[in-house]
Known about the structure:
The chain is α/β, with parallel strands linked by helices and 280 residues long.
Amino acid sequence: MKRRPQRIVCLSTETVEVLYRLGEEDRIVGISGFTVRPPRARKEKPKVSAFSTADVGKILAVAPDLVLAFSDLQADMVREVVKAGVAAHVFNHRSVEGILAMVDTVGALVGAAEAAAELVASLEDTLAAARSAGEALAARLGRRPRVYFEEWDEPMISGIRWVSELIAIAGGEDIFADRAGAPNAKERIIADPAEVIARAPDLILGSWCGKHFRPERVTGRPGWASIPAVIHGQVHEIKSAIILAPGLAAIEEGLPALAACLAALDDGAKRGNQFPAPRF
């Protein structure tokens, strides 16, 4: 129907991926330069912004009738396009449930509610299967393995809410779950590295957005040699592209990666605490 948006600019990667999955990619006329999923989008769609900054003229040049954005980080861009007369919808979700709701909303906006409902049902199946496997893992180990997820290293920043929730679904326990609900990264800064030592994680996962994770920088921190994860070589990277955007990738790829790392702890326990590296 013509009343549905025909020309959409997506300022973050997760809505791009959803529109492609719903078969509505022809509506997309512009994307962020930080869009990584699906890979073909970078070849097919013009890049009209960065993630938190943009030349609004580039956005307006593709004549959008709807701009999809994410969070307060894009508020300034959205304000400018709205002032120019373009409709906008800003998602601000930080949870797994929020990811599912985002899919529903995108589907409704473009008249693909049925396809969106099917996609959400598939995601819910993935979550249910992972939750069952995670509970079984915790039962075998006798407890939930403690996990330290590092989103950034300088300063050290712990994982955001959906990451913390996915860790729990996969059978782990986020050692900084008490901070995960803070939407602002500044509120998740770990000022004292000794806090991590005290919480004794069994598994350390790094996902430094925008740069390669360096395990040796983590294991070489003063006093960290006593952490169980370091002792047993359980310090690994999960690529930020599959875990740090609140979209399909976090559930479909990030969650299995988390589960694989936790499953390696189970394999190690069977071998008398000789923990092998995970495969994913």
